[in-house]
Every structure is written in structure tokens, then in C-alpha cells.
Amino acid sequence: MDFFKKTLEIISDSYGNPVLTTKVILSVLLMVLILCAYEFAVYRLVSHRTFYNKSFNICISVLPFFISTIILCLQSNIVITLGTIGALAIIRFRTAIKDPVDMLYLLWSIHIGIVCGCQLYEVAVLTSIVVTVVLLALENVSFGKLPLILVIHCDEEQETELFQAIGSQTKKYRVKSRNYTGRGIDFVLEISVKDPSLLAAEIKKTGIDRLSLIEYDSDSIL
Q1: How many of the other CB atoms lie within 10 Å of CB of 188?
Q2: pLDDT averaged over consecutive 10-residue blocks of the chain (222 residues)?
Q3: SS3 221
Q4: What residues contact residue 36 under an 8 Å CB cut-off, 6+ apart?
Q5: Is-contact 33 40, C-beta < 8 A?
Q6: Which of 25, 72, 110, 133 is the most buried (most CB within 10 A)?
Q7: Are 166 and 208 contacting, i.e. CB atoms less than 8 angstroms apart?
Q8: Selection from 195, 79, 199, 60 nearest residue 131 by Cα
Q9: By three-state DSSP, how is residue 30 classified?
């Protein structure tokens, strides 16, 4: 575990400014490489998303290299520190983050860069492990039931019987839309049930023989 502990080696020049050795720089970059590869694998394998963004994954894997070396430079010279602060103050990043979870991975990358730049390797490793455990737990543990989309067509006189049949199986449903036509009413409902087959059987008792139940990923739990 000695490798993961802070091992900053500082040599002062004639003006008293700390000078970083090649050994320190290589150790920081090696540790960043290991943790970036780990984060790359976690984002690719653990996060189950409809659309995997490879470009974003590459970005969060390369970003810590720049941040860690910037931190090293900030420790070595006060002039570089002031210049870097001024440069970062005028930079604006306008790329929109579509998935809020991606913000977590972006913060993780920044954390790796800063902590490894300070050579607090043990903190970086332990934080990465704990974050992975939390992500796995939250990705696989569900509180409540994910809703289904029920698409159904019925005659106007069947509307009361339809909602009675739905109400006999669950109280957790919302009518998303009603489309009135000359042949009846088209309903789109968001619904949460334990057994969709029982719901379908109950609806068919009303004389409705065609319906569609669509499962989808939603952040809202009924």
C-alpha cells in the first residue's frame, strides 16, 4: 500500500520554487492511467443506457491526464498558478450533458485528476471503489415498479367497464391521452401492475380483444 500513499518529492531551485522530478511525474501519470482505464470500463459495462456515448467515455478517460499535470504545475510555480486561474476563468464549455448521471462521471474524472495530481493515490483508489459499489447498488435496486404504457381502443360505451377492469388490478395509473374518433376512443395510459397478463385478461372480459402493453425505462415511479 505504500505506492498509494502520498509520495511527493520536491526539489527546490535556487529561488526556492519546488521542482518536480521525472519519477514523480511518471508515477502520477501511471496512476491516472490505471484509474482512467477503470472508469472507462465502469462507464461502458456498469451503466446500462439506451445509447452508449463512446465519445463521452473517451473524454472522461483522457481529461484526468490534463488535470493531474496542471495540479503538478500549480505546485511548482506561483506564476503558473495565477496564469492557470486566469485562463480557466475565461473558458466556457457549452456542450450539453443529456444524462444527469454523466455529470457524476465527469466529476469522477476531475476528482481523479486533482487527487492524483496531489499524489493522494490511496484516496483516489478507495473513492473509485466506493463509487463503483454505490453505482452498482443504485443501478440494480429498484424502489417501486417501473410503469408500462397501455395503448387500447374501445367504444364509448365500453369506457366505464374498461376503467373498472383496470381499477380491479391497480390504482396506480394515469391517462396520458384520449383520442376520440368515429369508431370509438383511443387511450394511452401509464400504468403500474404486478402481473400484466392478469390485467390483459381482465380487460378482455369487457369485450376488448386488442391492446398493447409497452415497457419502457422511466425515471418516474408510479
Answers
A1: 16
A2: 46 52 89 95 77 84 90 73 62 68 88 90 94 85 69 84 84 83 84 80 82 67 44
A3: coil
A4: 61, 62, 64, 65, 109, 112
A5: no
A6: 72
A7: no
A8: 60
A9: helix
Q: Is 212 helix (H, G, I), strand (E, B) or coil?
A: strand
Enter the C-alpha cell of residue 90.
Answer: 475565461
* Contact status, residue 57 vs residue 41, Cβ threshold 8 Å: no
Question: What pLDDT sits at residue 111?
Answer: 92
The three cell numbers of residue 137 are 447498488
Q: Which residues contact 66 (CB under 8 A, 6 or more apart)?
A: 113
* Cell numbers representing residue 73 in the block: 504545475
Q: Coil, strand, or helix at residue 54?
A: helix
From the list 17, 1, 23, the residue with the least C-alpha distance to 9 is 23
Total residue length of the chain: 222
Which three cell numbers, joined as nine digits, stand for 84?
492557470
